[in-house]
């Protein structure tokens, strides 16, 4: 059973701070990792993908991947109230699969 | 470019009724997926398709059926609705191949209540 674990939160940070969201996965051979943002009552929206160990930056978002430790994280710099949402981690199965397993998501609250 | 569209947005069914949730994508993606999301839970994969004419079960397929006769359309059929099927249903698509690693694009969802 492939598992993707996230702390459900809520993670509460003040406006302007760095929010750090973490995800661990069980399938050691996984190659593709994704972060989705889901506002309440809306559908998930892709914000980051990462495939290689290390950091990948896109604007205020940085995804970090460590395959040896089987974790992937998302950092949000200069957090804004509009970043308040649930963040879903998704991991594709090993062997070049395009079938992901999703974590339950971490609720982020950015307060002014 | 509409992306992924789903109909209906909301539906109330009585126990034992049947219905089809429609999903269409205009991005020429080969993969399509159906998920359900219960309150406070992650996404559970119901069925997926790797291309027209090819479908396979996901984690929670019981009580559902799918077909994929075209690249664009991937309807989900509920037979004999049960209260346990009350959920929000999302359709998604992705492209696998050069330039695509399976990033998923989601439709707006269908909120289904079975009473």
Word description of this protein:
The complex is a heterodimer of chains A (112) and B (115). Chain A contains no helices and eleven strands. Chain A has strands spanning 4-6, 11-14, 19-25, 33-38, 45-50, 54-58, 61-66, 71-76, 85-92, 100-102, 106-111. In chain A, strands 2, 4, 5, 9, 10 and 11 form a six-stranded mixed β-sheet that branches. In chain A, strands 1-3-8-7-6 form a five-stranded antiparallel β-sheet, with no helix packed on it. In chain A, 36% of the residues are buried. With 115 residues, chain B is mainly beta. Chain B is built from no helices and 13 strands. In chain B, strand 5 (43-51) and strand 6 (54-57) form a beta hairpin. The N and C termini of chain B lie far apart (36 Å). Classes of the chains: A mainly beta (112), B mainly beta (115). The interface between A and B is medium-sized, with 23 and 22 residues.
Q: What is the topology?
A:
The complex is a heterodimer of chains A (about 110) and B (about 120).
Chain A lengths: L3 E3 L4 E4 L4 E7 L7 E6 L6 E6 L3 E5 L2 E6 L4 E6 L8 E8 L7 E3 L3 E6 L1
Parallel strand pairs in A: 2-11
Antiparallel strand pairs in A: 1-3, 3-8, 4-5, 4-9, 6-7, 7-8, 9-10, 9-11
Chain B lengths: L3 E4 L2 E4 L5 E7 L5 E7 L5 E9 L2 E4 L6 E3 L9 E3 L8 E8 L1 E2 L2 E2 L3 E2 L3 E5 L1
Parallel strand pairs in B: 2-13
Antiparallel strand pairs in B: 1-3, 3-8, 4-5, 4-9, 5-6, 7-8, 9-12, 9-13, 10-11
């Amino acid at each position: 059973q492939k598992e993707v674990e996230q702390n459900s939160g809520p993670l509460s940070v003040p406006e302007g701070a760095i929010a750090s969201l973490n995800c661990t996965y069980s399938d050691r051979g996984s190659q593709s990792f994704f972060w989705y943002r889901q506002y309440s009552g809306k559908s998930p929206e892709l914000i980051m993908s990462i495939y290689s160990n290390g950091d990948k930056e896109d604007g205020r978002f940085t995804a970090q991947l460590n395959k040896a430790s089987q974790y992937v994280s998302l950092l949000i710099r200069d957090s804004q109230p509009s970043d308040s949402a649930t963040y879903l981690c998704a991991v594709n199965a090993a062997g070049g699969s395009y079938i992901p397993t999703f974590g339950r998501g971490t609720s982020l609250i950015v307060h002014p | 470019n509409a992306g992924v569209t789903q109909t209906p947005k909301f539906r109330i069914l009585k126990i034992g009724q049947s219905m089809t949730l429609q999903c269409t994508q205009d991005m020429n993606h080969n993969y399509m997926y159906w998920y359900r999301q219960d309150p406070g839970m992650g996404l559970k994969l119901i069925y997926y398709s790797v291309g027209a004419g090819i479908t396979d079960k996901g984690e929670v397929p019981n009580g559902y059926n799918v077909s994929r006769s075209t690249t664009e359309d991937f309807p989900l059929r509920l037979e004999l609705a049960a209260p346990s099927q009350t959920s929000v249903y999302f359709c998604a698509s992705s492209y696998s191949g050069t330039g695509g690693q399976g990033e998923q694009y989601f439709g707006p969802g269908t909120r289904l209540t079975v009473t």
